[in-house]
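User: My collaborator sent over this chain with a note saying "see what the structure looks like." That's all I know about it. Can you take a look?
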Amino acid sequence: MTTIFSKEHLRKRHYDWSDGRNHSMQNNEPDRRTFDRFNGFQVLFIINYFGKSLGKQNIAVGLKVEELISAQLPPDVKSELSVFHWLRGVYLFYGN
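Assistant: Without extra context I'll predict from the sequence alone. Here is the result:
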């Protein structure tokens, strides 16, 4: 079952939801734009894109990805594209 992961599903509450920072909603895939782990729109975009790429777009995967971004994203991973590639490696390492 495919479920779009939404703001209501997020466990963390530290996200910024300023309208002017919602550039990811206009993109179809991650690019070289700077990723801000505190921008709720970008986090949702990456969660949903990553889940879709796995063929597992559901709440459980979304929560796992949110936790990985929140707790383990290295500071040198700076673009949406690099976050996506990092997630692919770490998600596969920790098992799905």
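A starting point for your reply to your collaborator: Residues 38-96 form one domain.
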